Amino acid sequence: MFLALKEIRHEKLRYGLIIGMIVLVSYLVFVLSELAYGLAQQNTQAISSWNASKVVLNSDANDSLSQSLITKQTADKVKLTAHEAYIGQAGVVAKAKGQAKLSAQFLGINQSQFIYKRVKVTAGHKPTTNHQIMVDDSFKDNGYRLGDKVTLNSTDTQYKIVGFTHNAKLSVAPVIYGTLGTWRTLSHVTSDFQASGIITNRDSFKTKTSGLSTLTMGKFINKLPGYSAQNTTFTFMIGFLMIIAMVVIAVFLYILTMQKLPNYAVLRAQGIPAKVLVTTTVSQALVLVIGGLAIGATLTLATVLALPAGVPMSFNVPLLAGVTGGILLTGVIGALIPVKVILNVDPVSVMGG
């Protein structure tokens, strides 16, 4: 390690450029990874907050909550416990006087069921009547405030914002929580319909009721519009970028090591064991890669904090750790590739004797 650090201090420009390259590569991979994670979260934030296990939909709804309708007659055949909850979904456009229109997902819920109880309030309170709504915090960024009267879609009915909730998004759109009665009004369905679906947090939940199908939450999320395609695209993009980054870093470290063969030859001629040279090479690679990764991670965190709330980036430590581990491993491999050359270096031939 002593030799590694001493050489880095002596060749500041050369090693500074290597670290700079690692910083740029790692920063690019980190930013894309956090952007992909942030977008995935915005598809499922509301669902994640319920901590649900399964969803029951109309069997003809093509596994889509927004296209599903369950009649009261059918719903009455399903035995619900404290672990189940009705939910109604409708796409809406919210508009308040003097504010911009916002596309949102309206979710109608029952006050006595678990989803209503699990939704956390950041300001105000939860809706208790058909003319009250609770909205995602992103409405604040667009100028909406507690007490604002909002119209939904083309109806003249006004709904009062009585509360805000954090991280409530579904299919990248902010969520508006209200009652099932309001959902029926917005969906233009009669009181013969109970809900769009049934959410449960019981893994053991089953129903054999005709006309209904039960999906695991994982399968339901994968069926969300655009979710699978988006995740697949980002996964391949980040995967290819990781491979390219690893190859570039490994090649740079390999070339750097090969350029130092004359120095290694001199050290070998002075009686320095080959094991010490190999250890120095690996230690130097670790210092360079760790230094570059640390700066890249710091820049990524600063970017996440500096970007406006509308940019769906999220700082995820496990994801960042996985990417960091992959790049770090690549750096070590790049340094180990020329080990055989270092072990067999002949001082006489290298120095031109």
Automatic annotation (TrEMBL):
What membrane topology does the UniProt entry give? Multi-pass membrane protein
Question: What keywords were assigned to this record?
Answer: Cell membrane, Membrane, Transmembrane, Transmembrane helix, Transport
Highest rank taxon of the organism: Bacteria
> Subunit notes for this chain?
The complex is composed of two ATP-binding proteins (HrtA), two transmembrane proteins (HrtB) and a solute-binding protein.
Role summary: Part of the ABC transporter complex hrt involved in hemin import. Responsible for the translocation of the substrate across the membrane.
Q: Which family does it belong to?
A: Belongs to the ABC-4 integral membrane protein family. HrtB subfamily.
What name does UniProt use for this protein? Putative hemin transport system permease protein HrtB
The scientific name of the source species is: Levilactobacillus fuyuanensis
